[in-house]
DNA sequence: GAGGCGTGGGT
DNA sequence: TACCCAAGCCT
């Protein structure tokens, strides 16, 4: 048997039942693919359910305010996905008369859709013969066929893309593409896969040569930087507070946060009191360290050392918001966790 | 082409 | 603990 046949046999025995596999609706397939970029099925599933419930069609999504889309996306990370999702819904609704483009070449023109996602939609929804190349495919193909090129080099992708395209020619593209990703996610896992139960091991290069844990080759590591955030949880005489939107480049674009003082190092109690009393002359009343020590919030590429300071002010904010209103904004998860625990009591 | 961009789970 | 990884894309 050929690789493709063995793989599909494995899939027919082991496949997962997932809601976006029960449809050929390109809108739902597209939505699922955006949600699942760099995201595990278990984490993305509830978001898929909420989005399809709230926005049954792409037109419904296009009509929404961006703030609502961001709020629904809250907690999923990589928030540019949500902004691009909304932008593309508008493009398809307005420019394409609400008809999703039906070929790889047209689909890849849309915002937030790259080679992987275009191939996924084109094959799953329209059976176009194009191979998906994601993290699973790098792993499965590098091991089975013995490909030692460094996958952290973008140019390496071409090698895998051409192989994937070849493999998909004589089978159902949607079936093969789903199969290779499920196989990578469930059987040919990154660390210590159980090759003793694998029906492809007898013809697998890595198994034969004992290089399963060496493949795929990936050399580059991410550099992590440290940052120190002091969030001022202001409170006026009415018990209202203030939030601001993060704008420009950097993390958490378009999400909300409390007024922020970022420093180069840890701030002592005395230092924060001095800064805050200077920032609000004559209004400053009382400050408390709500977090009792710092919260370390880890992003993929940054370590954030975060403190929340409750600051009471002798004034009434013109644009103050209530605790109820606070919960309508989209926050980074670390701030949202603070809000739900702090205001619950 | 390298680096930025979240969150959560596994080892 | 620290590191890796997860249905990547954008600049």
Task: Summarize it.
By secondary structure, this protein is α+β, with helices and mostly antiparallel strands. The protein has helices spanning about 5-15, 25-35, 40-55, 60-65, 65-75, 80-95, 105, 115-125, 135-145, 155-165, 175-185, 205-210, 270-280, 325, 335-340; strands spanning about 225-235, 245, 255, 260-265, 285-290, 295-300, 300-315.
Looking at the structure, what is the overall shape?
Answer: elongated
Structural class: alpha+beta
As an assembly, this protein is single chain
Distance from first to last alpha carbon: 63 Å
Q: What is the average per-residue confidence, as pLDDT, rounded to a whole number?
A: 95
Total beta strands:
7
Relative strand content: 5-15%
Order of helices and strands: HHHHHHHHHHHHEEEEHEEEHH
What is the level 1 CATH name of the largest domain?
A: Mainly Alpha
Count of the domains = 2
Please count the helical segments.
15
Q: Main sheet?
A: 5 strands, mixed
Query: Approximately how much helix is present in the residues?
Result: 40-55%
Tell me which CATH architecture of the largest domain applies here.
Orthogonal Bundle
Radius of gyration over C-alpha positions, nearest whole angstrom: 25 Å
Task: Determine the CATH topology of the largest domain.
Answer: Endonuclease III, domain 1
Description:
This protein has 345 residues and is of the alpha+beta class. The protein folds into 2 domains: 3-214, Hypothetical protein, domain 2 (Endonuclease III, domain 1, Orthogonal Bundle), CATH 1.10.340.30; 225-342, Nucleoside Triphosphate Pyrophosphohydrolase, CATH 3.90.79. It contains 15 helices and 7 strands. The strands form 2 sheets. Strands 1, 4, 5, 6 and 7 form a 5-stranded mixed β-sheet that branches. It is elongated. It starts with a helix and ends with a helix. The protein binds a DNA duplex (11 and 11 nucleotides) through residues 32-44, 75-81, 84, 111-117, 120, 132, 134-137, 153-155, 177, 181, 184-185, 190-192, 218, 220-223, 249-253, 297-302, 332-333.
